Amino acid sequence: MASGFCTAWMNLILDEIFGAVDITKPGTLYFGLCTGGVSAAGVVTGEPSGNGYARKDITNDKNLWTDAAAGALENEVAITFAQASGSWGTVAYFFIANHLTDTGSAIIAYGELTTPKAIDNGDTAQFAIGDLDISLSASP
Known about the structure:
Structural class: mainly beta
Order of helices and strands: EHEEEEEEEEEE
Strand content: 35-45%
Helix content: under 10%
Number of strands: 11
Shape: globular
Distance between the termini: 19 Å
Largest sheet: 5 strands, antiparallel
Radius of gyration: 15 Å
Number of helices: 1
């Protein structure tokens, strides 16, 4: 499973750097989970529905992330979802969006979890501080 930035956001970043557009950072980021993956086009497969699941919204500010170093940064606050009131399935992927429910160009970045986790009634999914590593890497 690939991970990284969705194509629409890579294009925006390139356009920003090379002067085609001025982008404004999203004021709120929505963290999501899914069982089947996310494509570079922002297609999310297997996002839970019901049983207390909702994307976790967090204000996107300097306190959310570490300073980037070596092309990477990580979360500086815990990202805690609501307690599950039933099964969400075995989540194996995460994504970050700029919208509570939209997919496609709303999906900014995505990745595969190191260890998939079955989320059942009473469980609380969480990314502890430092669990989410977001990076830009150069091709070899």
